[in-house]
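We treat protein structure as text, and this decision shapes the records that our systems exchange. Because each token names a local backbone shape, the row as a whole describes the fold. An entry from our holdings is shown next, in its original layout:
>
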Amino acid sequence: MVQLCSLVQLLQLISFSAATNLFVASSDGIITTLSLTESTNSTYDLSVSSTNSDCGPNASWLTLDSANRILYCLDRGNSSSVNGSMNSFSIGENGALTKIDRVDAPLSGVFAEIFTAEDGSRGFATASYNKSTEAVIPIDSPEGDLSPPTQIYNPTLNQTGPIPLRQDLSYLHQVVIDPTKKFILMPDLGGDMIRVFAIPSTNTALTELAPLVTESGVGPRHAIFWQDADGCWFIMFNGELSQVVYSYKLHYTNGGLSWTKVDSITALGNGNEKAAQTAPTSEIAISPDHRFIVVSNRDISFPQSTEYGTKNTDTLSTFSINVDGTLELVQLAPSGGWSPRQFSLNADGTLLTAGHQNNKSVILWGRDTDSGMIGMDGVKANVTLSGAVVCVLWDE
């Protein structure tokens, strides 16, 4: 009997691959570690392995320092908060998190990215939406020690945009490092521009340069980079307000960056245009092989949508990238819920996790790397959490 039980236990271990951890931030302040396993018959199990409530009342973004096994959590604060915060955690066995440090950060932080200064020191550049704020938070050690912000800067606009409810002020939404690691870019949804900052000699402050100005009413939200066969760099971004995906060729100048427009395509496909603010885009990501980009749309869940509530899922749009940087729609796939604020691809591009605010869910989809198609064999796994999901990261 003992031998039989041992054999059954051994077979159970063999039937599942080693677990992959995912970290999830939700707006109730909880960081959840999910465990993903795959069986030999290609079925998946996604389950909660641990939770941590030490980020703050309103976790908004996660940044993984995989080399040093540190997870950083940006807390945007709530209506009664004076500040937000930046928090660091060590990653232990099975993805369990242990708090290391916490420093104040500007309220309404929605994105944070690590940069390395010219002298080798590291820091966070953070973007806050309300009130629009760029901040620098130094990282004092590889072990996750932090210093309070050394720069807090509130950008302003010379004029309001054509969508007054969303473009009355500057609204920063992302931080992205350019491929040369000399510039930090921050899409400004309110200003119809992508603000450009020079990476400094030390990790204390950024210097703003001339911005990359978009067309009026675009509302740039998030951006990615793509390189063509000749080594030229392109920036591709989603307009949250215009609900269009853009491709621009970058030009490096002595004083910063300039760009030339290459292409634009409606996020739900040309011929499927929606009135502004009825199907706002949210996330954009490039596939690991740099052949496709994926954009999430809130075309069903947004209250102003002409199709509001008609289906139980919003949409993921996949575009192929042509050799000249133009884009072609490949697929409109379900996200698996409402309000897919953020999604992530795994390292080899075969899986995608979509995080939903309205459903508080994480949905796992399969993805064909040759065609770029998502979810052709249905939902792989899903889990519902305690709060609105705002960020999902793979620990790979």
